[in-house]
Amino acid sequence: MNQESYPVQGMHCASCATRIEKVLNELAGVEKAEVNLITELVTLHYDPTQISLQEIDEAIAKNGYQLILNQDNNHHQADTESVQQRYTLEGMTCSSCAQTIQKNIQTLPNIKSAQVNLATETMLVEWENQANTQTIIDTVEKTGYHATLARSANEQYQADLTRKAEERKKQKKQLLLMILFTVPLFLLTMGPMVGLPIPSAIDGMIHPARNAVLQLVLTLPVLYLGRHIFQRGFKNLINLHPNMDSLVALGTGAAFIQGIVMTILLLATNKAIDGHPNLYFESAAVIITLMTLGKYMENLAKGRTSSAIKSLMDLTPKQARRLDSNGEPELVPIELLQPGDHIQIKPGESIPVDGIILEGQSAIDESMLTGESIPINKGPQDKVIGASLNKSGSFIYEVTQVGQDTTLAKIVKMVQDAQAGKAPIANLADKISAYFVPTIILLAILAGFFWFFIMKEPLDFALQIFISVLIIACPCALGLATPTAIMVGTGNGAQKGILIKSGAALESTHNADTILLDKTGTITEGHPQVTDLYTIDEYKNKEIIHLIASAEAASEHPLGEAIVQYAEENNIRPSKLDYFDSLTGKGIVAKLKQKTIHIGNLKLMKEITQHPISPEIIDQAEQLSAQAKTVMFIAVDLKVIGIIAVADPIKKSSPQAIEKLHQMGLNVVMLTGDQQQTAEKIGQNVKVDEVFSQVMPEDKSAIVQKFQKQGRHVIMVGDGINDAPALAQADIGMAIGSGTDIAIESADIVLMNNQLDAVPTAIKLSHATIKNIKQNLFWAFAYNIIGIPFAMGIFYLLGGPLLNPMIAALAMSLSSVSVLINALRLRYFK
């Protein structure tokens, strides 16, 4: 089963999206299709053995829309005036396969170089000038293998951005031409009403036929430029699935026909008339122009909703300083980078792709990806993330991930997938829009008949009512209400290091009432650290640290590693031991320069020492143990001289984050494998409501189910492999970003900055987004509830004003823009 997303052209409202979804979901071989109006993407889950993309495209085309499949034809022009493309290869089994493909590609004209990597099953192609994707694909197919263009999220985003920019440019040109004809038409018809003089040769009072023909001449180019509205509108009407275009096409079509009939009558008589001739050409032209203006403004606002993704994309530098075989740096486009390349980074530069530091050290600012504002000190063997900023030192690192495999590309892909999907609340708008347009058409007809047959008003009056109802009731705002808010909300989250995988996850989060927190790595740092060192007698702390670090350097125990790290932090290097032995269940013994060192529990100390253990040491050990710390006794030459305490420290942000969750009215529960006394002590320190201790990995999922059976809406927060089942079972799974890949895969939301305070931020963002969606839906409904009776003439019947169709068109366009502007407020959510 394939899952792919493709742009769709021609959608204007929620009923368009609903119609496409319905058509696709009825096709054999399509398991699920979701259409997002704001991103103009359709996400397909389909079986390629049952149905092809061409068949899917044809089904959409029959309803007046277009699926954009040939995105690979857009090539990326690099700074070097060459074109680089990366392909994914299938079918290779050995090095000769790779050599065969590489040789065949290199013989093609216009190819500068081709490199096939068997390990990664990719091929990097560099063209002399313009790329020809299909030639590569066909050549590889003839060789007996399969190739597809591998585009990173960045490249795909840039291609979509270019396409949409071209569409807006074309739309702007079309709009200006429409205005060029509509303005004189409007002045010609409406000018006399406000005292604007009209030349007698074209005055409608003196030469009505001449005036009518001139109006027709000015109207025809506008209708031609907006012909796509009529084509889609009537096509959907014929298919019995009317949409927004159908409403506009019916309304303006009726106005235009009225004008044609009146023009024929005026040409037949060619006499001066009393009053203004009811041609309605200006209504048709102005409505089409205003519709185009509204759509153009809407598209401009839509462009701003993706600003979060654009800001992430802009973080990546275009070139990298790669070291050649002689160790000399050369500037190359990042598209040419391969795993294993060595890159030189200087202070103030952005890191191009992911890798591991080989030489040097620096403070690296990863705030743009994680939301963590403090730069992180990194040195050899530490990982670096592409798009992060090098603040101080210089270093050389080895590339590990490129293209769509980089952390940034995965983040962008995750955000794009979330924005392409739908939230459950969107189903309300979809269901309403499916019945909304047919209902409006019926209301428009009934209103027109009422005023013509019952109220005995003239035909042009009834026609004005009919057109006004059709135009003002457009469900654009209804369709934009949900996807715009989700798009901006998920983008805002990404900038804060909160990656929300779907609109459903964003919506579901705000319903949470119970938060389950894994202790290790979530509430705590996840690795033991030395917290206390207490010594007596003549030994100084530095000397003690040197002795115990030297002893523990030979140990593989995590507590020993914590002691060695503690020594390194104090600039103390361990020495080579003369002797070492591990005493199972008790501790260790070592010899260094005539000194015998024992580190272990109280039982070991009582066995080896011939001196009484100081009451101060015993008392201190008991106090530290009561604080949920692991205490180890230190003996030198068979005399107990002190203790060292190790613990997995609580993250500085954890107590404050849990307090924020309490302020939000949430029940906070901690899960840990620790003993009950230790677990309860940590629980008291961070002030959780409930503690589950001695929890085995397989028990976590059962605890989630327990709360769910009580009717609770559960968020599970964890970071390890053993958290994955619970993350999947919970209503919402949140994975700490530094956790394992499997935990991140199982989660609905990923917290990149590794701090617990991102949890309340994510929940608040969910609340803000859902509130924004409800505001949008309210105003979309309220607008129609007020506008439709107004257009039907109900207020006019009670002595109020009558709605002009042109005002209706303007109001309809502004309603969509107002929904977009309201959603854009989420960009500034803190």
Q: How would you characterize this protein structure?
A:
The protein is of the alpha+beta class and 830 residues long. It is built from 29 helices and 30 strands. The chain has a 7-stranded mixed sheet, sandwiched between helices. It has a 6-stranded antiparallel sheet with strand order 20-25-24-23-22-21, with helices on both faces. It has a 4-stranded antiparallel sheet with strand order 2-3-1-4, covered by helices on one side. Helix 23 links the parallel strand 26 (667-671) and strand 27. The longest helix has 38 residues, at 153-190. The chain is elongated. 47% of the residues are buried.
- Category by helix and strand content: alpha+beta
Cα separation of the termini? 40 Å
Oligomer: single chain
- Note poorly predicted spans: 71-82
Tally the helices: what do you get? 29
Radius of gyration: 35 Å
Count all strands and give the number: 30
Helix content: 40-55%
Specify the biggest β-sheet: 7 strands, mixed
Mean pLDDT: 86
User: Which of globular, elongated, flat, extended, rod-shaped describes the shape?
Assistant: elongated
Strand order of the largest sheet: 18-30-29-28-19-26-27
Strand % is: 15-25%
Properties at a glance:
830 residues, alpha+beta, 7-stranded mixed sheet, 6-stranded antiparallel sheet, elongated
Write the layout of secondary structure elements.
Layout lengths: L1 E8 L4 H12 L4 E7 L4 E6 L6 H9 L4 E2 L15 E8 L4 H12 L4 E7 L4 E6 L5 H11 L2 E4 L3 H38 L17 H18 L1 H12 L5 H26 L11 H25 L1 H7 L5 E5 L5 E5 L8 E4 L8 E7 L1 E4 L1 H4 L5 E3 L4 E2 L4 E2 L4 E7 L5 H14 L5 H29 L4 H14 L3 H20 L2 E3 L2 H7 L4 E5 H5 L5 E7 L5 H12 L5 H12 L9 E5 L3 E6 L2 E6 L1 H7 L6 H12 L3 E7 L2 E9 L6 H10 L3 E5 L4 H11 L3 E3 L4 H13 L4 E5 L5 H6 L2 E5 L4 H6 L2 E3 L6 H35 L1 H4 L7 H20 L6
Parallel strand pairs: 19-26, 19-28, 26-27, 28-29, 29-30
Antiparallel strand pairs: 1-3, 1-4, 2-3, 5-7, 5-8, 6-7, 9-10, 11-17, 12-15, 12-17, 13-14, 13-16, 18-30, 20-25, 21-22, 22-23, 23-24, 24-25
